[in-house]
Structures are given as structure tokens and as C-alpha cells.
Amino acid sequence: MLTVVDDAHDTHAPVAVGGDMLDELAREGARRMLAAALQAEVAAYVDAHVGEVDEQGHRLVVRNGSHAPRQVATAAGAVSVKQPRVNDKRTDPVTGERVRFSSAILPAWARKSPQVAEVLPLLYLHGLSSGDFTPALEGFFGSAAGLSAATVARLTGQWQDEARAFAARSLAEVDYVYLWVDGIHVKVRLDTEKICLLVMIGVRADGTKELVALADGFRESAESWADLLRDCKRRGMRAPVLAVGDGALGFWKAVRDVFPATAEQRCWFHKIGNVLAALPKSAHPGAKEALAEIWNAQDKQHAQAAARAFVAEYGAKWPKAAAKITDDLDVLLAFFEFPAEHWVHLRTTNPIESTFATLRLRQRVTKGPGSRAAGIAMAFKLLESAQARWRAVNAPHLVALVRAGARFTKGKLVERPAESATDEQAA
Fold first, then answer.
1. Most buried in the list 112, 116, 180, 210, measured by CB within 10 Å?
2. Cα torsion 407, 412, 415, 418: sign
3. pLDDT at 99 (0 to 100)
4. pLDDT the model gives residue 375
5. Which residues of the chain are under the pLDDT cut of 50?
6. What per-residue confidence (pLDDT) applies to 54?
7. 30, burial (CB in 10 Å: exposed 0-12, middle 13-18, buried 19+)
8. Helix residue ranges, H only, 4-72
9. Which of 98, 115, 96, 97 has the alpha carbon at shortest distance from 106?
10. CB atoms within 10 A of CB 58
């Protein structure tokens, strides 16, 4: 075993290059990279909400020290990581629960660092140039790994090929009963504009969630969505029973043309934001409670009554805010026609929002143009990695009944498809 000599005592002494030394260097590199990545992630999150304050003018989202150090396993060995703490005093407008920051790099429950397949896409979409990957990732593999720029280029090229293959795959053997859609604007080191990612996540007949499509769109236009939907239909995709998305999307015109049988559900997360934007801040607390009475009602009838109460309370002073509810009420309450166990899934586009939360909120763009194709490939790999952690919807066995045409009243099954067919024959 070679002895490690501290050159602070002898500037001319040779530095040992044994395994212990390399391991220690690798662990220190991994620790520093994780620490820097976590600090940057928290800084971006806090900066994104810097303008949100309470009635006293205090910021709602602030940095609040650090969590206790914890051991995290990396490819270079176990390292001690002190994760930044965020104090987020906001509440979720849909669920009413306290908003909590969750690191996409190192979740609270994780005791093992992300694999390179997850790290690279995240770093790229956060603005780290591909030329920076080598020094950053050496900490995960050890200083002797020799992770060259050519190796990274081959890896990202492989991911672009995988993204293209994914976009061309057959959909004839898959049945997506529910569909979440959204247009995600991500700054990916481009000179002029952000990439608009058209994202579709579906629920299969067995209740599992799955990425359906990811495409480069143009300002979420109806033409871009129509092109994507027509392509999916050409590859064998059936019409979803229900699609969930923001009312501002060009998607709705497109889906009516391509899949006219698909029912529409507006996302309550986006709708609440739209309503509050038409109200003074002093009215926000009461409006949030009144809106919660609608989306969280025990059934459709109570939701309609709550909507009338909202209009009575706010319509005279702020008719634009009331109109945002009344004009879309049918498509805001569409989820009530489905199993009660699925309501929590169908009210919002949360599967998409949560996956891209830290990315879509990023404000700063790193210098140097990036490739749109590379950006889309990186987003694909990020979604692919996230998909492995997606949970099936509640009561997954009911999804197949929804596809089969079962009817639900107040969220409960009242008529099975076979019973419906018998009734029609008798008539």
C-alpha cells in the first residue's frame, strides 16, 4: 500500500496514485457536484417565486438553512450530503395542502444518487452545456474513468435516436383511456426562443400511466397539436375517453377534429390561476375557498350549486372572473361523470406539472446555443426516467370499465356495459 503524502508539508514530494487516493478524489468530486447541483436547484426555485408575498409583504418562498447531513450512495462510494432547506408557505389551490419543495435531483427519500441516464438530461435542461458534462460527471465515475466529450456525444446521440424511435412506434396495441396534455416551454440554451414541448401522458386500460407523445410544437398552436394527434392516429392510437388540459391550449380544436368522441376536462390548476388573475389580491383567500367548494364538491350537483354561489359572490364586482367559471362549467365538471376514485387524477394535469416543475420555472439561460433535437431528446430521457416512478391511478380496475362504456352516478358504478347492451336490446 502506497502512503499518501500531504504536499502542504513537502511541495516536492510525490502524490500517491493508489486506489485509496483515487476513491477519495472520486467521492469528493461526487459530493461537490451533488452539493452544487442542489444549491443551484434551490436557488432557481426560490428565484422563480421571488415576487410572491403575504399580506405583510413577507416572501412566501425563502431559503431556510439546510437539512441534517445524510449519507448518499454514489458510484464512487458513500458521500455525506447536506441538502438545502426551503420554507414554502404557499398552499396548493386545488388540494388546499401546503406546497412543499421536492428536489428532482435528490428526492427526500433517496439514499442513492441518480444514474447518469437521469443526471445528464436534467443538467442539460437546466442549462449546463454538454462540454461541462465531463468534469461534472467524473465525480460519479471516479477520476480514472476517462469520460470524454466524445463519449458524452455518443451517449446524447444515442438518446436522440431513442427519441426518434419512440415518436415512430406503433400505438395499435396500446389503449389510452385517459389523456393528460400540456405545452411546456423550456429554455434550453437557445438563442432566440424556448422550446415548446407538446406532452401527452396517458392512462392505459390497466390503470398504469405512460408517456404517449413528446413533440416540438410551435407556441402550442392548434396546427401543431393536430399534426401530433393525426400522427398518433395514423400509428394506431384509439380515441381517449377523456382528455385533461389547460383551456388555453390549441389542443382542444385539434382533438375535436381528430378524435371528436373524446370528452374534455379543463385543468383546475390552470383555471384557478386564471380566475385569481382577474381578481384583486385582497379577494384571493375567499375566492380560493369558494373555488375549492366547486372542484372538491361531493358530486356534480353540489359543484353546480357552489358555482352559482361563486357567481353570486363575485360576479357583480368582477364579472370577468365569474365568466371564467360559467363559460367553462361543463368542461370543468366533466370529471364527475367518471369513477370517484379517479376524480383526484382527472381534475388537473398534475402528472405533467410535477415532472417539469423545476424546469419550466427556470428563468436564466446559459450562454451558448443548444440543439433543439438534443433538447427534445433530453426531455424524453427525463420523462422516461420519471415514468418508472409513476404510480397507477386509484382503483385501476375501473379504467377498463370506463373504456367499455360503464356509467357512473355520483362517482359510483350504476350500470355495467353488458347491462347497458341488454337494456338497449329490450327497448
1. 180
2. positive
3. 85
4. 74
5. 1-19, 22, 139-147, 190-191, 358, 360-369
6. 87
7. buried
8. 19-48
9. 115
10. 9
Under DSSP, the state recorded for 3 is P
Helix (H, G, I), strand (E, B) or coil at 165: helix
Domain ranges of the chain: 1-107, 164-409
In three state form, how does the secondary structure of 177-201 look? EEEEEEEEEECCCCCCCCEEEEEEE
Query: Do 214 and 383 touch, CB atoms closer than 8 A?
Result: yes
Q: Which three cell numbers stand for residue 378?
A: 433530453
Angstrom CA distances, 79 to 26, 28, 32, 74, 137, stand at 10, 8, 10, 7, 15
- Which residues have a Cβ under 8 Å from the Cβ of 219 and sit 6 or more positions away? 196
Would you say the C-alpha torsion 91, 97, 98, 100 has a positive or negative sign? negative
Residues 6+ apart with CB under 8 A from 177: 202, 203, 204, 205, 240, 241, 242, 399, 400, 402, 403
- Joined together, the cell numbers standing for residue 251 give 389542443
- Given a contact cutoff of 8 angstroms between Cβ atoms, the answer to whether 216 and 232 are in contact is no
**Element (DSSP H or E) covering residue 152:** helix 149-168
Give residue 17's pLDDT. 38
Smallest CA-to-CA distance from 141 within 23, 32, 35, 38 is with 23
Give the three-class secondary structure for 203: strand
Q: What 3-state class would DSSP assign to 67? A: coil
Extract the C-alpha cell encoding 142: 471516479
Shortest CA distance to 38 belongs to which of 145, 141, 122? 122
**Sign of the Cα pseudo-torsion (53, 57, 62, 64, in order):** negative
pLDDT of residue 6: 34
- Confidence (pLDDT) at 127: 57
Which residue matches cell numbers 426516467? 385
Taking only Cα atoms into account, the Rg of the chain, rounded to an integer number of angstroms, comes to 25
pLDDT of 314 reads 97
| Sign of the alpha-carbon dihedral angle for 383, 388, 390, 392 | positive
Pairwise CA distance, residues 205 & 402, whole Å: 9
CA distances in angstroms from 366 to 150, 268, 334, 376, listed in the order given: 22, 33, 42, 17
